[in-house]
Specification:
This protein is α/β, with parallel strands linked by helices. The protein has helices at 22-37, 53-62, 66-83, 97-109, 133-138, 166-174, 184-194, 225-229, 231-234, 259-273, 304-311, 313-322, 334-361, 375-382, 386-407, 409-415, 417-438, 443-454, and strands spanning 5-8, 43-48, 90-93, 114-124, 129-131, 151-160, 179-181, 199-200, 202-204, 220-222, 251-255, 280-284, 287-289, 292-293, 330-332. It has a domain at 333-454: Isoleucyl-tRNA Synthetase, Domain 1 (Orthogonal Bundle). The strands form four sheets. Strands 3-2-1-11-12-7 form a six-stranded parallel β-sheet, with helices on both faces. The protein has a four-stranded antiparallel β-sheet with strand order 5-4-6-8. Strands 14-13-15 form a three-stranded mixed β-sheet. The structure holds 5'-O-[(L-methionyl)-sulphamoyl]adenosine. Residues 9-12, 20-21, 23-24, 49, 228-229, 231, 254-255, 257-258, 286-287, 294 line the site of 5'-O-[(L-methionyl)-sulphamoyl]adenosine.
Length: 469
């Protein structure tokens, strides 16, 4: 089946996973569950970006071989992704021999668009990135993130001739052949493309040992772009296999900081290979802590496991999928988190407990429901407005709570037991119908609710779904 491939950015492994990394995975997982719910067969890739001198240095500091270092980290990232309840179908490591060999073939295929030139200018070792004269001046010669002076570089590099593809990339973005969400970033990208220079895609081996060798040039190793971006297709088997069943991707999910590479360099690589562009690029915002960017220097980096440890996974997913917008920045504070947990417990946890208790008292047996369409919900999901789609479910839950309060089935049970039964059955059916879509966001909770209200004898859960603190 076509158009069912979703990708996530592959994180650098020189550090451990942090809260900022969760957004890629939660969004991808939600989209995957939604598409699966709609009957599609979905492939979801995840992976790790393992080359570069930062890893090499980190491994040396710890006195272990660099391959062992990245092996450990790749495992940590896989465990991390699983801990978020995210299920991927493919995992790619940039040090996989298959990936390395396929990248070399990709390089060869792009050779008409690659040339060698001399780079002279500034460089940040922390970012592993080139720095323009303008950035150098604006930052007074020091990287604001790493607080280290930029170093001067003079070396030979291979370049990818972006200018060969620029006008076609512009057209693709303008016409939504490559659709950018959110739309406000489209203009930003079109401006960026105007002045986008050719990009350096290799470094001298003397500077960076830990990388894929450039084919037919022992002195150079690949640097970042071809190695990292190609993961999305090497994991499908390109160029050894025909990938047309999965490529072009339905949606590629990235953070806003790396959108420009995915909308500039990546389309150039694909065009150079004669492959179609992905249909959608979704750029999510930043997760901040107390309104500030998380950074090791400020010391405000939050470990997602600490949050999950507090109340479990469902409240974590609830917070980031309902109270964080897909496309703008999302702030985390413990205060907001507790408020969100209480809302989940009061609105959904109490509803389940109350309704199941009433059903038990009135001998209501489990119900089966037919799936009903919800166009508003689908429209929101298709626009990647996951948080608004989630709101629609929550409005339904609020409505059920109001109905219980207004219809008072406990009082009815005394005056008109048959009517009480009808009211309860209708409440159960409507809850199950909302719950059918809740599986897209909170799969475990949805499965529990399904079990409770479809069982022959409805029983309230022994412990509430979301116990009070
Ligand atoms: N290795 C590159 C990506 C290559 S993709 C071919 C990279 N790695 S990263 O570890 O810095 O970031 C991985 C993902 O996490 C990116 O999508 C990035 O935008 C996202 N985030 C990292 N910190 C973040 C926040 N604080 N908030 C939200 N997402 C952020 O870039």
């Amino acid at each position: 089946m076509k158009e069912s491939y979703i990708t996530t950015a592959i994180p650098y492994v020189n550090g451990n996973p942090h809260l900022g990394h969760t957004m890629d995975y939660l969004l991808a997982d939600t989209l995957r569950r939604y598409m699966t719910y709609c009957g599609k067969k979905v492939r979801l890739q995840a992976g790790t970006d393992e080359h570069g001198s930062k890893n090499f240095k980190k491994a040396a500091e710890q006195g272990i071989p660099v391959q062992d270092f990245v092996d450990q980290k790749a495992q940590i990232y896989q465990d991390f992704i699983h801990s978020l309840g995210v299920e991927y179908t493919d995992f790619v490591r940039t040090t996989d021999p298959d990936h390395e060999r396929r990248c070399q073939e990709i390089w060869r295929k792009l050779s008409d668009h690659i040339y060698k030139d001399k780079y002279e200018g500034w460089y940040c070792e922390g970012c592993e990135g080139y720095v323009t004269e303008k950035e150098y001046n604006e930052n007074h010669g020091e990287c604001p993130d790493h607080k280290k002076p930029y170093t001067k570089l003079s070396e030979e590099n291979y370049y990818l001739r972006i200018s060969d593809f620029k006008s076609r990339i512009r057209e693709a973005i303008e016409s939504d052949e490559l659709k950018i969400t959110p739309a406000f970033r489209k203009k930003e990208l079109l401006n960026m493309l105007k002045d986008m220079p050719d990009v350096s895609i290799s470094r001298p081996r003397a500077q960076v040992q830990w990388g894929i060798p450039v084919p037919d040039d022992d002195e150079q190793v690949m640097y970042v772009w071809i190695d990292a971006l190609s993961n999305y297709i090497t994991v499908l088997g390109y160029p050894d296999k025909d990938i047309s069943a999965d490529w072009p991707a339905h949606t590629q999910i990235v953070g806003k900081d790396i959108l420009r590479f995915h909308a500039g360099i990546w389309p150039a690589i694909l065009m150079g290979l004669g492959l179609p562009l992905p249909r959608n690029l979704l750029a999510h915002g930043w997760i901040t802590a107390n309104g500030e960017k998380m950074s090791k220097t400020i010391g405000n980096v939050i470990d997602p496991q600490e949050i999950i440890g507090k109340h479990g996974l469902a409240p974590f997913r609830y917070y980031f999928l309902r109270h964080a917008s897909t496309t703008t920045d999302a702030d985390f504070t413990w205060e907001k988190y507790e408020a969100s947990y209480n809302e989940l417990a009061n609105d959904l946890g109490n509803l389940v407990q109350r309704l199941a208790t009433l059903c038990k008292k009135n001998d209501i047996s489990g119900q089966k429901v037919e799936r009903v369409t919800n166009e508003d919900f689908d429209r929101r999901m298709e626009k990647y407005e996951f948080n608004f789609a989630f709101d629609i479910l929550w409005d339904g839950i609020a409505e059920l709570n109001k109905r219980i309060d207004a219809e008072k089935p406990w009082a009815l049970a005394k005056s008109d037991p048959e009517k009480a039964k009808k009211v309860l059955v209708k409440l159960v059916v409507d809850l199950l119908s909302i719950n059918d879509r809740l599986q897209i966001f909170l799969p475990d909770v949805s499965a529990k609710i399904q079990d409770i209200f479809t069982a022959t004898e409805i029983q309230p859960p022994a412990t509430p779904l979301f116990p009070k603190n």
